[in-house]
Structure formats: structure tokens, C-alpha cells
Design goal:
Elements (H helix, E strand, L loop, with lengths): L1 H61 L2 H8 L6 H18 L9 H23 L7 H14 L3 H17 L2
């Protein structure tokens, strides 16, 4: 019996030591894998966030009054038709980029929404100054004149997005 205990106790100590060492190594490997996954996720998220900022700046450029008019103006349409086309274009562009709010700050998204709303307001106010049946050129001229005076809401939002992007991603 003493002989069995002489062999059993050291074997148990060795088994316990092996268990503790293997358990420690397993936990270390798990932590290492978790860190690696987090770093890979961070790279992916940074890429997605940068793409969101790019897309939103492109959205703002596309809904700027000058760009809208250049893309939609035709000589054969009326003021009301141009107004409708401009508003539809803004709505479509906005809807297309709606999911990007997930990747930008609340402040940035608020500025984008304000830029869109102010651009719509500018178009509607300019359209209200004209007979709906007049040629669209009258509306185009009014919109361009009113947007040229002050810094447009889209330009302000673009500047904000640029500064936020530089603050977040510069090293």
C-alpha cells in the first residue's frame, strides 16, 4: 500500500502540474486570438467609417445647388418640373446614403441632415418666387444666385466632415 502511495502522489502532482500549465497556455492562446480578432475588426470598422465619410461627402457634393442644377437642368421643362426633379434627386440621394449614419458621429449626421433640409428649403423658397409654368431657367438662376452669396449648407457640412475625419483618423 505504501508502495502504491509512493508512486501515486508524484503522479498526481505531475498530472496536476501538467493540467495547470496546459490550462494557462489555453487561456493565453484564447486571449491572443481574441486580441487578433479585435484588431482585425478594428481595421474593418476603420475602413467602413472612412468609406462612409467619403460617401457622405460625395452625397453633399451631389446635392449642392450647383451640382443639382447642372445634372437636372433641361431647356424644355418648367419651374415646377425642375423643382420636382431637384427634390426627388435629393430624396433619392439621401435615401441611398441613409445607412451611413451608422458609421459617423451623431453631430456629423445632424449636419448632413441640416444641409439636406436647408438645400430643400432653398429650392422651395426659390421656386415660390416664380410662376410654376415659366421656363426652368428662371428657377435655376434664382437658386444659383441665392446659393452663391453665403457659404452653402453643403459646403459647411463638407468642411465639418473633413475636420472630423482628420481628427479621428490622423495619427
Amino acid at each position: 500500500m505504501v508502495e502504491i502511495i509512493k508512486y501515486t502522489i508524484p503522479a498526481l502532482i505531475v498530472a496536476l502540474t501538467v493540467f495547470v500549465v496546459l490550462n494557462y497556455q489555453y487561456k493565453q492562446q484564447l486571449a491572443k486570438n481574441k486580441l487578433e480578432i479585435m484588431l482585425n475588426n478594428r481595421k474593418t470598422i476603420i475602413t467602413l467609417r472612412l468609406q462612409a465619410y467619403e460617401r457622405l461627402i460625395l452625397f453633399l457634393e451631389r446635392i449642392s445647388p450647383e451640382a443639382l442644377i447642372m445634372r437636372t437642368q433641361r431647356p424644355d421643362i418648367s419651374v415646377i418640373e425642375l423643382q420636382t426633379m431637384l427634390l426627388k434627386t435629393i430624396r433619392t440621394e439621401f435615401d441611398h446614403n441613409l445607412s451611413q449614419q451608422l458609421y459617423v458621429s451623431n453631430n456629423a449626421w445632424e449636419r448632413i441632415r441640416n444641409a439636406r433640409e436647408n438645400t430643400v428649403k432653398l429650392i422651395n423658397e426659390a421656386a415660390s418666387q416664380h410662376d410654376p409654368k415659366k421656363p426652368a431657367m428662371h428657377l435655376s438662376k434664382t437658386i444659383l444666385e441665392e446659393s452663391a452669396g453665403a457659404s452653402s449648407p453643403t459646403k459647411k457640412a463638407i468642411e465639418f466632415l473633413k475636420s472630423e475625419t482628420h481628427a479621428i483618423f490622423s495619427v
